[in-house]
Amino acid sequence: MKNIPLVSIVTPSYNQGRFIEDTILSVKNQDYSNIEHIIVDGGSTDNTIEVLKKYEGTYNMRWISEPDEGQADAVNKGFEMARGEIIGWLNSDDIYTNRNSLSSVVDCFLMNPETDIVYGNAVHIDGGNYIRRVRILPKFNFQQLLRFCYIVQPSVFFRKHVITQNKLNIHSESALDYELWLRLGKEYKFYHINKILSADRNHIWRKIIYKKNESNEESIQHQKDFGQKFGLRFNLFRIADKIQAGYFRVKGLKCLFDLRKEGNFSVNLKFNDNYKMIKDQLYGDFKKLL
Fold it and tell me: Which helix (H) or strand (E) holds 119?
C-alpha cells in the first residue's frame, strides 16, 4: 500500500484499569503501521496511570490525565488532538478483535472514496474476555437506525472532516453514541463492511447496564428529537427488525466458529464450549440487545 493514511484511535478512560491493557494491546498489535493512539484519561484513581506509563514509548501512543466533564468531553478532547485522516473511537474497556481490523478499515476507505463513515460487525465479550456472541449488522438505513441503535460504537470509523464538523453532545450521558449516529445519519455517507472489527465488552460497571433505565429513556428522547413517531407503524417495523436480528443471530454461528478457527486475534480472546457458544449466540440477552 503506497499511500497509507494516518489512523488516529481515541480512547476515553476513567478507572478502567482492569481492562485498559487489553485495549492498548489491541491497538499496539495491529498489522497496520501508521497509527496514533490518543488516550484521554479523566483523572483515574485506580491502576490506569500505571498501565499507561508501562506502554508509554512502546508504540505511537500519547496520553493525558486531567479532570473532565465526562465521557463525551474526553472523546471530544481526543478528536481535537487527532491528526489522522481516519479516526476511530475505542473505549477503555473495548478492543479491536483482529490484528488486521484497522488495515481492513483503511482498505475500505481507499476503495470507497465517497464514503464518510465505515462501520463493521462486532462480538460481545464479558469481563473475562470470553466471546459471548457475534453481532452482524445491517447495511445503513436511517429509518431503521431511528427505530433502534444497531451500530456498535467501537466498530465505527470516520474521515477527519466528519469529527471536525461534529463533536459529541456533552449533555448526552448514556446514549451519546446513538445521538451522534442520528445526527450524522442524514448528512454523511455510511458504509457497512461485513467483517468483525471489534469486541464490545459487557460488564456490571458499564453505564448502559447499571443505568439501563436512564439509558433507555435517553435513547427514546433522541428518537423523538430526530422525528421518530411511536404507534402501530413503528411496532410493525420493530417486529421486522427483530426477525432480521434473529436471522443475523443464526448467520452469526458460522462467523463465530470461523473466528475461532482463524485465531488472528490482537489479544487473548476465549471461547466457551460449543453448546454454550451456540446457546449464547441464539438466545443470550436477545431482548436487551434489541
Answer: strand 117-125
- Alpha helices by DSSP H, listed for the chain, are 20-28, 48-55, 71-81, 101-111, 142-147, 160-165, 176-185, 207-210, 212-225, 232-262, 274-283, 286-289
Strand partners, 227: none
Q: Are 42 and 13 spatial neighbours (Cβ–Cβ below 8 Å)?
A: yes
Cβ(33)–Cβ(4) below 8 Å: yes
DSSP 95-115: EE-BTTHHHHHHHHHHH-TT-
Backbone torsions φ then ψ of 86, nearest 5 degrees: -125, 135
Task: Region of 227 please: left (phi>0), alpha (psi -120 to 50) or beta.
Answer: left
Residues 12-67: pLDDT tens digits? 999 999 999 999 999 999 999 999 999 999 999 999 999 999 999 999 999 999 99
CA 216 from centre of chain: 18
Q: Do 152 and 119 meet the contact criterion of CB atoms below 8 Å apart?
A: yes
Q: Pull the grid cell for residue 99.
A: 490484528
7-289: what fold? Spore Coat Polysaccharide Biosynthesis Protein SpsA; Chain A (3.90.550)
Q: In this structure, are residues 108 and 94 in contact, taking their beta carbons and an 8 Å threshold?
A: no
Q: Using the 8-state DSSP alphabet, how is residue 70 labeled?
A: S
